[in-house]
Design goal:
alpha+beta, Cytochrome Bc1 Complex, Chain D, domain 2, Immunoglobulin-like, 4 domains
Length: about 500
């Protein structure tokens, strides 16, 4: 029986890992070259095909009447589109104008990264056009008028240091002030970020511009140009068509794209912890960290244990790690739009999770289980830089170790929407409830994170799947001794041989 349970858990962990990666890589479709597909004219037959497909694939999110009243809608973030309003965020027409048929067709085909709206490119061309016409039938706006022509894009200005610098100036210029929402570094932590609402009075958070893969419209300069020029209807993102000319818009688009890497981060399945000589860093900003490789770990809301987190704020954690003969040090980096203090009801927090016994079976990824406990190194905002060592056998079965057993240290810096947390601990301890770090072994590692301003606490958190650490194997001193000894022996032999030859002469 236990073997069956063990196998089930292994399969479940694999599935969860796959889901994380699938969700994370979902935006790739936007990077693919768009195919030019023929427009299929509206007709009763085509609409009937769209209706049949809608009732099979779309109704559970968007509802029978297209009003987003559906079984799944309350659990999704952002919420599914209410088609009865006739408002579409991603379009090529001016703000407050109807979206074109081609706009709706593209969304159906490409999906929207960072949302539950997946791509439907596998559907036949005529079926997707049928969906366009059927979706439009839910709103009186499309019955009353026709969408105007798309706005003109103009001639793109290639990205360059000069163009990026001009865009940077515009980003914080009076009257534009992108930084008031998106923050000075583009991390979504501007002064107005926590008070934004949609036209329907639901909270909304500005885009983190350093995470290009989450851009809903797309990741190219043209996509950014449209967003700046048109805005995003139904949200606080305005149109800057009257504030910026075409050239300025391109400069600003180039600057926005410069805030993130063109390469989509790939989850780090196995991270190698480098061995260094000397003391480990004492703080998160030590120059030593600049040369340490970065691990990437996507996060998702915890939706298994009640109360669940369907709308998490932290979607990504980065990690660096190094060790010496005695200690190991982790640097955790994540974005958070607000820094919460000990006066707040909810706390920003993060936990690094390891198995208590790395040689045993990998624990259940939600804080372990009774047979396979987990060991957590947890930081919380109200404790400043202190780290709490916790033993857990489940999400609601967590016990902090006694003060005398706590040997982990920490230091944290919050800067412009980004946390950087240092965690240090001895490689090995005498406590059997501690995780032990041994070079050359694969050690499972996972993460949990809480964003206090989103009222995340307890089981309401972001989580990751299991990944792996492997400490770079230490080179035994004998590796150096034996070659040196061999050199000395050879040298002595040669010296003796030469001496003998000279004597015979």
């Amino acid at each position: 029986m236990r073997q069956k349970i063990s196998l089930t858990r292994k399969c479940f962990n694999i599935v969860i890992s796959a889901l994380f990666i699938f969700a994370f890589m979902g935006g790739k479709v936007l990077a693919q070259e768009e195919k030019k597909e023929a427009v299929v004219a509206e007709s009763p037959e085509i609409i009937a095909k769209g209706k049949k497909t809608y009732e099979k694939n779309c109704i559970n999110c968007h509802g029978e009447k297209g009003d987003a009243v559906a079984p799944a809608s309350e659990r999704l973030y952002p919420e599914p589109r209410d088609f009865t309003l006739g408002v579409f965020k991603i379009k090529t027409t001016a703000r407050d104008e109807l979206a074109t048929d081609q706009d709706i067709f593209k969304v159906i085909t490409r999906g929207i990264p960072g949302t539950s709206m997946r791509e439907w490119a596998e559907l036949p061309n005529d079926v997707r056009w049928g969906l366009v016409y059927y979706v439009k039938s839910f709103s009186d706006r499309f019955k009353e008028g026709k969408a105007p022509a798309p706005i003109k894009v103009g001639t793109p200005i290639p990205s360059s240091p000069e163009s990026i610098e001009k865009g940077k100036e515009l980003f914080s210029k009076d009257g534009i002030q992108c930084n008031s929402c998106h923050g000075d570094a583009g991390r979504g932590n501007g002064d107005l970020a926590m008070d934004l609402e949609t036209d329907w009075e639901t909270p909304i958070f500005p885009r983190d511009l350093t995470k290009r893969w989450t851009f809903k419209r797309g990741t190219g300069p043209r996509d950014i140009y449209y967003t700046i020029r048109i805005g995003v209807e139904g949200t606080p993102m305005p149109s800057f068509a009257e504030d910026l000319d075409e050239e300025q818009t391109w400069h600003l688009a180039n600057y926005v794209l410069s805030l993130s890497s063109p390469e989509e981060p790939i989850p780090t399945a196995s991270y190698q912890v480098k061995l260094i000589q000397g003391e480990l860093p004492e703080g998160p900003d030590d120059e030593v960290w600049n040369s340490v490789p970065m691990g990437q770990y996507p996060m998702a809301g915890q939706v298994i244990v009640d109360p669940r987190m369907f709308k998490p704020k932290i979607d990504f954690v980065q990690m660096k790690a190094i060790y010496n003969q005695d200690e190991i040090a982790f640097l955790l980096i994540w974005h958070d739009p607000s820094e919460l203090t000990d006066d707040d009801s909810f706390k920003d927090a993060i936990a690094l999770q390891l198995p208590q016994n790395p040689d045993g079976q990998k624990p259940y990824f939600l804080n372990g289980d009774p047979e396979n406990p987990a060991y957590l190194l947890q930081w919380s905002a109200h404790k400043e830089g202190s780290i709490t060592e916790i033993n857990a056998t489940g999400m609601k079965r967590m016990v902090a170790q006694k003060e005398g057993n706590q040997n982990a240290k920490g230091a944290v810096v919050y800067d412009n929407g980004e946390y950087r947390l240092l965690i240090k601990r001895s490689l090995k301890t005498d406590d059997k409830k501690d995780a032990q770090f041994e070079p050359g072994k694969f050690i499972p590692v996972a993460f949990s994170a809480w964003e206090g301003s989103n009222e995340e606490t307890g089981t309401k958190r972001s989580i990751s799947a299991w990944y792996f650490l492997i400490l770079e194997a230490q080179i035994p001193k004998t590796v150096y001794y034996y070659p040196l000894l061999a050199i000395i022996i050879v040298a002595a032999f040669e010296f003796s041989l030469i001496k003998l030859i000279r004597k015979e002469k």
